[in-house]
Amino acid sequence: MILTVTPNPSVDRTLEIDTYVRGAVIRIHNAMAHAGGKGVNVSRALRNHGVQTVAVLPVGGAEGAQLTALLGEHGIAAVTVPVAAVTRCNITTAEADGTTTQLNVPGASLSEAEVAALLRAVESQLRHHPKWLVAGGSLPQGTPTDFYVRLSVLARRYGVPIAVDTSGEPLAVTARAGAANLLKPNHHELAELLDRELTTLGDVVDATREVLSWGNDAALVTLGSYGALLVEPDRFWWAGGPPIVPRSTVGAGDSTLAGFLFDDGAPEERLRRAVSWGSAAVALPGTTIPGPADINDEGVVVVPEPDLSLPITDLPAKLGSEAARSRP
């Protein structure tokens, strides 16, 4: 079983349109609603592939009831913590050319008592010794920025590894505390964390290893359309897939993380699976999460320790072609 916690979940509504034009009346071709939030999305991806998962999250108001119902439709076991605030609702517009625009509500505040109740709910599930604890997303207003560090303390008490996917101040606090067995930033979040530009592969690897030196074990760094990196203290791998016409990038990183955690195995094979799951998510509309029929890892290449001088933007063309030439 893999346990996820989403402190700031949402009902995610996606509107498929031709083109977004400010000030215009826009015809919607399709509208859909899914349970959302990083931890929730990881649970959805895992459940789609037959992995037992439990999602812990706060819920409030009519939207909270809808979120709980949506989780039930996805077949996900949920431990919900009732809170006074209404669960947020996020809107995404998905245009025909693959452009997505996200309108994200920050989320209402949780009281100190509600934060404590959420931590107790997580601990109640840690007693079952899940394979991983996955903690992700933004924090509701007023939630302590060390919330993920507190989760790490609980996880380590029960011998459960923790993967953290967040950004901004919560990422900074968590990373600097050395609280994660696995961090999953994208390269923009990593650049913001260290306040430096990351333009080459070496820039990203050096930045990631600096973060690992703070006490974190490993990092899965997503690079958008340029692939992903798995970085450990003494080795690293890059992986990328064939070009894709994106339908929506929302939730792709969550599917990538779920693919990595899906099963044990050699690091390069876990990275291959992660990239194939993330690529599949990009090809689907809205916040749709891929299932087994959507996954194709044949075009995904994994390269151990490639040339650090390569610009990030050149990685798919350069490394993908080199891998193709090296095949028998």
TrEMBL record:
Keywords: ATP-binding, Kinase, Nucleotide-binding, Transferase. GO terms for cellular component: cytosol. The keyword Kinase applies. Residues 10-290 form the Carbohydrate kinase PfkB domain. GO terms for molecular function: 1-phosphofructokinase activity; ATP binding. Its EC number is 2.7.1.56. It is an enzyme of class 2 (transferase). The keyword Kinase applies. It catalyses: beta-D-fructose 1-phosphate + ATP = beta-D-fructose 1,6-bisphosphate + ADP + H(+). Catalyzes the ATP-dependent phosphorylation of fructose-l-phosphate to fructose-l,6-bisphosphate. NCBIfam families: 1-PFK, pfkB. Belongs to the carbohydrate kinase PfkB family. This is 1-phosphofructokinase. It comes from Thermobifida fusca TM51.
